[in-house]
């Protein structure tokens, strides 16, 4: 893993989300991720979608939700501190123009990167609280439809009667609803799974394909055409 | 650090640092992406007689100073492995070890016979200890008679290259199992596979892993592994590949103090293969 310096950290007012910006200029495609680690503990790094890259400033940003052992370490960081990074990893979204974007929670992170690289036909973002909504507002493109729990982002999206290719990222329950109910075009889903190596070695992040074989979210994905995924293992 | 070449079961090994079975996958990706020449050896992930899709996710849970894994021996089966994966490995940049697991003596013997006709790898490891499968291959290693029967059959079918036995962490009769290995003709002991472990989500009361328990590895395990290696060292002169918690160059030396000849780095490989190769290089003959 490579040492990189933390440039900026900002938290939502309820401290459930962190936008972490580091000095890292490895060119990534939207939908790719990196493994991040802080010092020696926890020893296993965690995967995070790349949320933004500023080529001129040479920085990369990640949107991180409070969860797991790494969070306490992140809370102790200050700008100027060092974190370890491995990536960019994974396949990324296809090069389609003008996709519709549907994201739940931290699932908006890779979609923000998509929206920064091309015009999009619509952006639907579901968040957990008003605090998260306020935090994400400046990052989301104009015209984004935001729903706050207990509203479902999938309801807002389906009610819009949009048609066209969709890029979706979020909890598997959300992705399944889209897969079952959206008939307006093809869907690409970016899956979330616990990972350890991020590069296809350990076989820790499996997804069943419809034809029966097992793919790895890290190295075969994280983006899959929805039609390839058998959801039997992704609950 | 001084070069530390080790001769194990007739193999000259450039560095005591090796990659054990599993964390580095089958080797295709590692071989493409990293310079493995300073490693003592690489062990490909365990293969079985038939394809296994492995366990449902979640297969991993972090414990801070370690990881619990529940992969369940996902692999394409020996036939597909030899047809499609193995050719991509050759020639391998360091010693290549293959690992096999079967559920019966016959399954081990058949795989060993197949592999006796396959060139290009240097040692056959018998995984007698996977913590993540219901089948009997998870417990063979705890039973001296079963170990004896498997090894005798494998030795018969695979006479020309060294054979290692990978034992479980939890063995009631260690002395009996080690004696069985010696008598049946094992050349190297691989000590140990991951001990059983579990974690629960306090918010839901449920286990994190789909199969509840998995195999624990990582730095937290080191002192426990060292005590067990020491105990085995007092029982046998067989070469030992120690593994379970080795992370740094100092850990390699510490494992050797306890009696290991070679040292496997599993979890470290999985998170940073390049760093493991650098540590291996520190020990490799000729480097300073
Ligand atoms: C993700 C993962 C997969 C593993 N798969 C296998 C396997 O297929 N066969 C086997 O004999 N051991 C397997 N092991 C155990 C390792 O070979 C080794 O015993 C262990 O990782 C050593 O401990 P360490 O990770 O602390 O270095 C696996 C370990 C991990 C972490």
Radius of gyration of chain A: 17 Å
Sum up the overall morphology of chain A in one term.
Answer: globular
| Chain pair with largest interface | A-B, 33 and 35 residues
In terms of per-residue confidence, which ranges of chain B show pLDDT below 50 for 5 or more consecutive residues? none
Shape of chain B: globular
Relative strand content of chain B: 15-25%
User: Helicity level of chain A, as a percent range?
Assistant: 10-25%
Strand line-up of the largest beta sheet of chain B: 3-4-7-8-9-10-15-16
Order of helices and strands of chain B: EEEHEEEHEHEHEHEEEEEHEHEHH
Number of helices of chain B: 9
Distinct ligands, ions and cofactors found in the model: flavin mononucleotide
- Contiguous runs where pLDDT drops below 50 for at least 5 residues of chain A: none
- The total strand number of chain B stands at 16
Number of domains of chain A: 2
Sheet with most strands of chain A:
6 strands, antiparallel, barrel
Largest sheet of chain B: 8 strands, parallel, barrel
- Tell me roughly what share of residues is in helical segments of chain B: 25-40%
Structural class of chain B: alpha/beta
Tally the beta strands of chain A: 14
Which radius of gyration of chain B do the C-alpha atoms yield? Answer: 18 Å
Task: Estimate the mean pLDDT confidence of chain A.
Answer: 96
Describe the fold and architecture.
The complex is a heterodimer of chains A (235) and B (288). Helix content of chain A is 17%, strand content 33%. By secondary structure, chain A is of the alpha/beta class. Chain A has two domains: 2-89, Translation factors (Elongation Factor Tu (Ef-tu), domain 3, Beta Barrel), CATH 2.40.30; 100-228. The mean pLDDT of chain A is 96. In chain B, α4 links the parallel β8 and β9. An eight-stranded parallel barrel of chain B has the order 3-4-7-8-9-10-15-16, surrounded by five helices. In chain B, α3 (105-116) runs parallel beside α4 (144-157) and α4 runs parallel beside α5. Chain B is globular and about 55 Å long. Chain B has 288 residues and is of the alpha/beta class. The complex binds flavin mononucleotide (FMN). Flavin mononucleotide (FMN) binds next to β6 and α8 of chain B. Flavin mononucleotide binds at residues 20-23, 45-46, 67, 69, 71, 73, 99, 127, 130, 166, 193-194, 217-218, 221, 243-246, 264-267, 270 of chain B.
């Amino acid at each position: 893993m490579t040492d990189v310096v933390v440039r900026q950290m900002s938290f939502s007012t309820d401290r459930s989300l962190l936008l972490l910006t580091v000095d890292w200029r490895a060119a990534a495609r939207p939908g790719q991720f990196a493994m991040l680690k802080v010092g020696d503990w926890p020893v296993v790094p965690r995967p995070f979608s790349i949320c933004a890259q500023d080529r001129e400033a040479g920085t990369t940003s990640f949107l991180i939700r409070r969860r797991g052992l790494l969070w306490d370490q992140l809370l102790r960081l200050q700008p100027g501190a060092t974190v370890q990074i491995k990536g960019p990893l994974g396949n990324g979204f296809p090069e389609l123009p003008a996709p519709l974007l549907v994201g739940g929670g931290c699932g908006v992170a890779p979609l923000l990167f998509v929206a920064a690289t091309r015009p999009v036909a619509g952006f639907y973002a579901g968040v957990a609280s008003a605090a998260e909504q306020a935090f994400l507002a400046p990052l989301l493109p104009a015209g984004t439809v935001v729903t706050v729990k207990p509203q479902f982002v999938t309801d807002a999206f389906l009610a819009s009667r949009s048609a066209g290719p969709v890029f979706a990222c979020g909890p598997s329950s959300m992705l399944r609803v889209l897969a079952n109910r959206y008939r307006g075009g093809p869907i690409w889903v970016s899956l979330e799974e616990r990972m350890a190596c991020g590069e296809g070695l350990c076989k820790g992040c499996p997804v069943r394909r419809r034809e029966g074989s097992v793919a790895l979210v890290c190295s075969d994905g994280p983006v899959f055409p929805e039609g390839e995924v058998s959801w039997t293992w992704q609950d | 650090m001084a070069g530390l070449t080790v001769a194990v079961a007739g193999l000259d090994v450039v560095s005591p640092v090796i990659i054990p079975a599993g964390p580095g996958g089958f080797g295709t990706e590692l071989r493409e992406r990293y310079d493995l020449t300073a490693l003592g050896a690489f062990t490909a992930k365990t293969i079985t007689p038939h394809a296994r899709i492995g366990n449902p996710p979640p297969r991993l849970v972090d414990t801070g100073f370690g990881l619990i894994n529940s992969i369940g021996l996902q692999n394409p089966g020996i036939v597909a492995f030899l047809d499609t994966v193995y050719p991509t490995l050759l020639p391998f940049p360091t010693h290549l070890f293959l690992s096999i697991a079967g559920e019966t003596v016959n399954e081990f013997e058949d795989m060993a016979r197949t592999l006796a006709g396959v060139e290009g790898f240097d040692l056959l490891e018998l995984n007698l200890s996977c913590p993540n499968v219901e089948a009997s291959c998870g417990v063979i290693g705890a039973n001296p008679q079963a170990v004896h029967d498997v090894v005798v059959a494998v030795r018969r079918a695979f006479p020309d290259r060294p054979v290692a036995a990978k034992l479980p962490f939890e063995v009631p009769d260690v002395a009996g199992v080690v004696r069985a290995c010696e008598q049946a003709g094992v050349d190297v002991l691989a000590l140990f596979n991951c001990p059983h472990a579990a974690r629960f989500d306090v918010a839901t009361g449920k286990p994190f892993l789909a199969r509840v328990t998995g195999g624990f590895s990582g730095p937290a395990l080191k002192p426990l592994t060292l005590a067990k290696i020491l105990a085995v060292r007092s029982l046998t002169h067989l070469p030992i590949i120690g593994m379970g918690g080795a992370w740094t160059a100092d850990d390699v030396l510490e494992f050797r103090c306890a009696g290991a000849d070679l040292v496997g780095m599993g979890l470290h490989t999985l998170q940073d293969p390049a760093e493991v190769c650098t540590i291996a290089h520190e020990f490799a003959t000729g480097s300073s």
